[in-house]
Amino acid sequence: MTSVTEASTLSSAEAMRARRKARLAHALNRTAATLQIVGLGWLSPLLRMAAGDSPRQQGQELWQQMGVPLTALMLFLAAWAWLAPQVNTSLGAIPGPAQVWEQIGILHADHKAERAKEAAFYDRQAKRNAELLAKDPAAEVKTRPYAGKPTYLDQILTSLKTVFTGFLLGALVAVPLGVACGLSRTVNAAMNPLIQIFKPVSPLAWLPLVTMVVSATVSSDNPTFEKSFLTSAVTVTLCSLWPTLINTAVGVSSIDKDLMNVGKVLQLSGPTMVRRLVLPSALPYIFTGLRLSLGVGWMVLIAAEMLAQNPGLGKFVWDEFQNGSSSSLARIMVAVFTIGLIGFLLDRVMLAFQAAVSHTGTR
């Protein structure tokens, strides 16, 4: 009798340990999927190793996810440092990693100095206005905005604001049109020629037209949005909406017909069917289009800012090219890496948003 009780106790303990192990494995899988989405997948082997998984197996996985990329990056930096001084241009030799890193520090110091000047300007203005009001409470005081030059970080923020505005405008147009094209063969036949004609058009062709239209329609001396901002944002919209429109149409047209028939049997209204059946089923296609559109929009924006001399990273690159100083090439290289890094982060943001909305990728 005692042996039976002991066996039962051991069996219960083993079952409990198995359940704990299963819960831990499930939690690790969810965490690993989340880390992969945000670009930190190399942390997963460390977590699994800490949880008791095979150190050898997880060490190999860590080498694949972290060791190999770091080795490739170090080889790239070494090749860059060796080859760069051997390429001479009209502005001097191509800067190496050390010169580019130095300019990053200088640009950051310039930003801090400009913010200090701005704070001092507003302090002086507030003090002057307070003195005027102390002498005459009825005096009319003026508050002027700081007119200092935008720093490198300011240019980054301007470009991000512009690209998100153009991207959101494009998504608001592309998703409904894509749904309509996917649901109706007639709408698809009507839209297809326009898509095929306008999809390949370069932003350099759109920009003059957009500039003229914005200049003709935005005539206020103090508009809600600056003309340069609207010009860049609308250009991004016109060039970036097509991947979302096409992918949405493909996703909607690929929905299982039986699912649509169920909606008809249940007598769901058109908007309800779109909201409950069409959009959830086509969501992976829609987000694929949105990720492509955001990437296209980011590339288009830099070109538009360079050509139109609108504020942003593109203008920063062009100004440094025109400046022709000894540090210009290094600053352009800083901008190149910044543009690439931001493009990667924007894609990660969209991937994380997709996982949060569609509840995929973190299971």
Describe the structure.
The chain is mostly helical and 363 residues long. It folds into two domains: 8-84, no CATH class; 108-358, MetI-like fold (Orthogonal Bundle), CATH 1.10.3720. The chain is 80% helix and 1% strand. It has helices spanning 2-37, 43-50, 55-83, 97-135, 152-183, 185-198, 203-217, 227-253, 257-265, 270-308, 313-323, 328-358, and strands at residues 88-89, 92-93. A two-stranded antiparallel sheet has the order 1-2. The longest helix is centred in the first third of the chain and has 39 residues, at 97-135. It starts with a helix and ends in a 5-residue tail after the last helix. One of its GO terms (cellular component) is plasma membrane.
Concise structural overview:
This protein is mainly alpha-helical and 363 residues long. It contains twelve helices and two strands; from the N terminus they run αααββααααααααα. The longest helix is centred in the N-terminal third of the chain and has 39 residues.
Structural class: mainly alpha
Order of strands, main sheet, comes to 1-2
Globular, elongated, flat, extended or rod-shaped: what is the shape? globular
Distance, first to last CA = 44 Å
Could you list the spans in which at least 5 consecutive residues all have pLDDT below 50?
A: none
CATH class of the largest domain, anyone? Mainly Alpha
| Number of DSSP helical runs | 12
DSSP strand count = 2
- What is the CATH third-level topology name of the largest domain? MetI-like fold
Which H/E pattern describes the elements? HHHEEHHHHHHHHH
CATH superfamily of the largest domain: MetI-like
What do the pLDDT scores average to?
82
The radius of gyration is 28 Å
Measured as a percent range, the helix fraction is: over 70%
Largest sheet, described in full? 2 strands, antiparallel
The name of the CATH architecture of the largest domain is Orthogonal Bundle
Structural domain count: 2
- Beta content comes to under 5%
GO biological process, one term: transmembrane transport
GO cellular component, one term: plasma membrane
Protein name: Nitrate transporter integral membrane protein
Family: Belongs to the binding-protein-dependent transport system permease family.
